Amino acid sequence: MLEMPGRGTLYLLLGPNVYDPIDRNGLQERFGWLVPKAFGLIDRQMRIVNVVRVIGDLEGSRLIPSDWLPQMVTFDNDDIPTSVKPVDPQNMATAFGPGVRFVEASVAITKEPITTGIEKRLRWLQGDIRGQALDPDARGFGETFPQKIRKSWFRRTINR
């Protein structure tokens, strides 16, 4: 989440990019492979079991390749989930006004605690959200953007 006072809030989703035909069909969930891709593990043809073994030893930050950016969204009103709109990183000014542009994104592995609490800002994320679309009238994967986006893509449950 990136807050831009007076302009809105940008949310990066923890799920597939609904505009990518491969990702949208669940064949390649960008978020799940984001860290291995950014840290060069995929380029080494590592199997998933090997990625899991080495990922805990990684540290530092890496740029996210532009073709691996997660789905970006904003809301006209954070309290109304169906007011969600896609954000094009190549045209940030459309969503946030003149002078706003996307430069780069990075992912970092730290020893800091995982950031939590998005459900305090997006109150409709409270409770069991598995499988629920932002538009409650969604059937299947839906036709409209709010019908395609799942609530679970805004937060993940952390098992401790």
Keywords:
alpha+beta; four-stranded antiparallel beta sheet; two-stranded antiparallel sheet; globular
Describe this structure in words.
By secondary structure, this protein is an alpha+beta fold. It has one domain (2-153). It contains six helices and six strands; from the N terminus they run E-E-H-H-H-E-E-E-H-E-H-H. The protein has helices at 21-24, 30-38, 48-55, 92-96, 118-121, 145-148, and strands spanning 2-4, 8-12, 60-63, 72-75, 84-86, 106-109. The strands form two sheets. Strands 1-2-4-5 form a four-stranded antiparallel beta sheet, with no helix packed on it. The longest helix is centred in the N-terminal third of the chain and has 9 residues, at 30-38. The radius of gyration is 16 Å and the shape is globular. The two termini are 23 Å apart.
